[in-house]
Amino acid sequence: MAITVKIGAAVDDGVSDAELAQTLGVKVRLDIRKSLDGNLIISDHPDIDIVVMPQKNKILVLATKLNSGVVYGAQTRLFDFLQARGVIDPASIEGGSVYASLEASIPEAPELPTIKIAILNVAKWLDEERPSIEFVEDYEEDVVDDYTEPDKEYSTELGQVPQSADKGSIKPSLVRGPYGLALYNYYGY
Fold first, then answer.
1. CB 44 within 8 A of CB 126
2. CA angle 123, 79, 132 (to 5 degrees)
3. Is residue 78 part of a domain?
């Protein structure tokens, strides 16, 4: 079975996924690659890579970066979405052979293009996730901007910090007392 992926705007006019997959000219816009063994790797999500395996009728979801705790949440949301639409078998969801991965099987349906239906549903899920992804990206840009180019009211020029006896949040009497925090948080003022 040949799979044709074209770039364009996603279409959803209340048509079922099976009819949509069999319709000519249906286009979705995805960052997708084909591996040497024929797997389709969708890299649109910043936290996960989605691998559609046509030969094995499986979907594998891999973590792109292991330094965040949001990977499992994104994997679960994807599989919940696909399970609710009947694209994957709920009993087949399991941890993959790769660290921090989940996989599920796509049920056999001889009269339907199951791989196309899976790709269309992944594209729909990515469209639903896009607002939260953009929010996180905008927030991270704002944090970087606040640190690199702060407003005038929240910053001082070098050497213009007023002098005072106590500065900072660590009181000298707390850490230099005889028992660490000077008798269990008793400040002795």
1. yes
2. 60
3. yes
